Amino acid sequence: MESLARFAVDEHNKNENALLEFARVVKAKTQVVAGAMYYLTVEVTHEGGKKKLYEAKVWEKSWLEFKELQWFKPAITPSELD
């Protein structure tokens, strides 16, 4: 899962010209589709060292060496709902 999470962060950085740094996978879920869909909660470090959680969705067809970031967005934590 770590390699998929790193892929998600790298793709987000490339697409958004961002400088997020992968820290760890917090949560992962897999759905079997035409390949596999991975739902990841990833902790990243922003410039300046602030850590934040993001959610990512990655579609993978390993037999085709295909991997695509579907979305990457900030995760909403319970403390942010108050």
From TrEMBL:
Protein keywords: Protease inhibitor, Thiol protease inhibitor
Molecular function GO terms recorded: cysteine-type endopeptidase inhibitor activity
Name of this protein: Cysteine proteinase inhibitor
Membership in a protein family: Belongs to the cystatin family. Phytocystatin subfamily.
Origin species: Arabis nemorensis
Cystatin domain span: 2-75
CDD domains associated with the record: CY
InterPro entries assigned to the protein according to its UniProt record, in alphabetical order: Cystatin, Cystatin_dom, Cystatin_sf, Prot_inh_cystat_CS
